[in-house]
């Protein structure tokens, strides 16, 4: 690996010699930052955590993680080992390596919103000292770390990047709710502005996952690798969503088709569904922004985005159409949507497409109730302005004409046809786009629809 342009590789020793013992700071204690801080503390490092959300910091300090990514036991052990969550930025002053895990959302017109990154740089900058290292984990397009964050840190600190201060990039790849692919099992991609810094970061992160580290030749390569991982996933899901919509029109189950197709060794196994959340539905816009800046129209990337962004409307339209076939005479039908979070078994509501699905069903004349045992009701009210309903195990008589299984939480996947039957009138419709209950479809008394 060669050093980044303009960086003198012989400046390394003052920086990297200290990394193995430095106090670490993690900035942004969300889905990415908190598990990282806890893992670093568990590996024996001294870790300061900083977040602007004082209430969240308070809960973390009390041993509670409302993302559900860190168990109480692991968090308590980290706190006992010296992990110090703080909402006072001055707590960052003692850190030699600062790892930034703040959000990278998009603006209303689907452009990268680098606001949280820039604000983090403004906070961190004055607390840096000569010899500091700042590593970014947030997902960005190639160039953001060195061309945007570097100058912002330099301006806020008065230090010179490449002389007093070095940058690294180590994209996070965790998948919320995924118990298999965890920090300690995922290969970590790392990059530093000099070879020695990259090596030091490889040691730092390798201590968390048995040394499974891939060092890239530059920070830009690592930024680009992360950006394409999520854009590729978005495009693949868009393809499967598209074929699902085609086959639905000819009464063919895409799930049956996929069961057959995935038996081929090189078939890519993706499932149709709503694409929400903070990553897959957002990160491709970082790549498309870069593409347009450099003069290439990113047709494939944006086509995937358009289709996935539109999928909730498509599903609502098809469910409403099928409902009218099944129950043409019901006036003001009542629908229950099961699941509101952006994916299965996580409480994360960010960019969930279920509100879009619900709104479209309302336009089709349904009254819509939402039920989600995984989501936090006060979070739903605060962030989405929506209310959740409780669904009693036995309603006496079924209250709904339509049930839509929007998010296949484990709690819903385990429902029996009798459980579902207690919610929906016998003349009603059970809509299960993801096919979670499809092997039980024959047992439903109600009509059943899936992709
Ligand atoms: N969630 C994921 O599964 C995932 C996976 C891989 C990569 N990423 C990327 O990691 C980054 C963080 O994502 P996340 O899901 O952890 O976000 P998050 O919203 O869960 O957490 C971010 C935290 O940063 C805090 N924050 C915001 N601005 C801040 C600032 N200026 N200073 C200090 N703290 C600040 C917020 O209060 C919040 O607690 C994003 O770039 C995301 O794309 C996320």
From TrEMBL:
<dbReference type="InterPro" id="IPR017476">
    <property type="entry name" value="UDP-Glc/GDP-Man"/>
</dbReference>
<dbReference type="Pfam" id="PF03720">
    <property type="entry name" value="UDPG_MGDP_dh_C"/>
</dbReference>
<feature type="domain" description="UDP-glucose/GDP-mannose dehydrogenase C-terminal">
    <location>
        <begin position="336"/>
        <end position="439"/>
    </location>
</feature>
<dbReference type="InterPro" id="IPR028359">
    <property type="entry name" value="UDP_ManNAc/GlcNAc_DH"/>
</dbReference>
<dbReference type="InterPro" id="IPR014026">
    <property type="entry name" value="UDP-Glc/GDP-Man_DH_dimer"/>
</dbReference>
<dbReference type="Pfam" id="PF00984">
    <property type="entry name" value="UDPG_MGDP_dh"/>
</dbReference>
<dbReference type="InterPro" id="IPR001732">
    <property type="entry name" value="UDP-Glc/GDP-Man_DH_N"/>
</dbReference>
<dbReference type="InterPro" id="IPR036220">
    <property type="entry name" value="UDP-Glc/GDP-Man_DH_C_sf"/>
</dbReference>
<keyword id="KW-0520">NAD</keyword>
<dbReference type="InterPro" id="IPR008927">
    <property type="entry name" value="6-PGluconate_DH-like_C_sf"/>
</dbReference>
<dbReference type="Pfam" id="PF03721">
    <property type="entry name" value="UDPG_MGDP_dh_N"/>
</dbReference>
<dbReference type="InterPro" id="IPR036291">
    <property type="entry name" value="NAD(P)-bd_dom_sf"/>
</dbReference>
<dbReference type="InterPro" id="IPR014027">
    <property type="entry name" value="UDP-Glc/GDP-Man_DH_C"/>
</dbReference>
<keyword id="KW-0560">Oxidoreductase</keyword>
<comment type="similarity">
    <text>Belongs to the UDP-glucose/GDP-mannose dehydrogenase family.</text>
</comment>
<protein>
    <submittedName>
        <fullName>Nucleotide sugar dehydrogenase</fullName>
    </submittedName>
</protein>
């Amino acid at each position: 690996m060669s050093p980044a342009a303009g960086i003198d590789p012989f400046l390394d020793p003052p920086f990297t010699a200290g990394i193995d013992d430095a106090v670490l700071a993690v900035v942004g204690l969300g889905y990415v930052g908190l598990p990282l801080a806890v893992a670093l503390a568990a590996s024996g490092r001294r870790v300061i955590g900083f977040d602007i959300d004082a209430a969240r910091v308070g809960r973390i300090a009390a041993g509670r993680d409302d993302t559900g990514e860190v168990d109480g036991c692991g968090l308590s052990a980290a706190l006992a080992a010296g992990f110090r969550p703080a909402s006072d930025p001055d707590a960052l002053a003692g850190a030699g390596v600062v790892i930034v895990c703040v959000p990278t959302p998009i603006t209303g017109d689907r452009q990268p919103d680098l606001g949280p990154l820039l604000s983090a740089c403004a906070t961190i900058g004055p607390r840096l000292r000569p010899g500091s290292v700042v590593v970014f984990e947030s997902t960005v397009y190639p160039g953001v770390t060195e061309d945007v964050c570097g100058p912002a840190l330099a301006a806020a600190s008065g230090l010179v990047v490449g002389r007093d201060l070095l940058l690294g990039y180590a994209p996070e790849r965790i998948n919320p709710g995924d118990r298999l692919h965890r920090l300690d099992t995922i290969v970590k991609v790392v990059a530093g502005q000099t070879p020695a810094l990259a090596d030091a970061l490889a040691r730092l992160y390798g201590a968390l996952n048995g040394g499974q580290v891939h060092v890239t030749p530059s920070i830009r390569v690592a930024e680009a690798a992360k950006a394409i991982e999520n854009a590729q996933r978005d495009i693949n899901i868009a393809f499967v969503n598209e074929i699902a919509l085609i086959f639905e029109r000819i009464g063919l189950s895409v799930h049956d088709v996929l069961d057959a197709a995935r038996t081929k060794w090189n078939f890519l196994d993706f499932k149709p569904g709503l694409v929400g959340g903070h990553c897959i539905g957002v990160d491709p816009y970082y790549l498309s922004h870069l593409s347009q800046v450099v003069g290439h129209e990113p047709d494939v990337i944006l086509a995937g985005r358009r289709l996935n962004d539109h999928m909730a409307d498509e599903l609502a339209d098809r469910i409403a159409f099928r409902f009218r076939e099944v129950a043409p005479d019901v006036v003001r039908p009542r629908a229950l949507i099961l699941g509101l979070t952006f994916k299965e078994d996580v409480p994360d509501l960010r960019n969930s497409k279920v509100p879009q699905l619900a709104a479209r069903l309302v336009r089709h004349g349904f009254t819509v109730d939402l039920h989600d045992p995984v989501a936090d009701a006060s979070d739903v009210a605060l962030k989405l302005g929506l209310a959740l309903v409780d669904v009693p195990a036995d309603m006496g008589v079924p209250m709904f004409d339509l049930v839509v299984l929007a998010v296949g939480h484990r709690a819903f996947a385990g429902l029996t046809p009798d459980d579902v039957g207690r919610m929906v009138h016998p003349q009603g419709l059970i809509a299960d786009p993801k096919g979670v209950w499809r092997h039980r479809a024959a047992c439903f008394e109600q009509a059943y629809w899936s992709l």
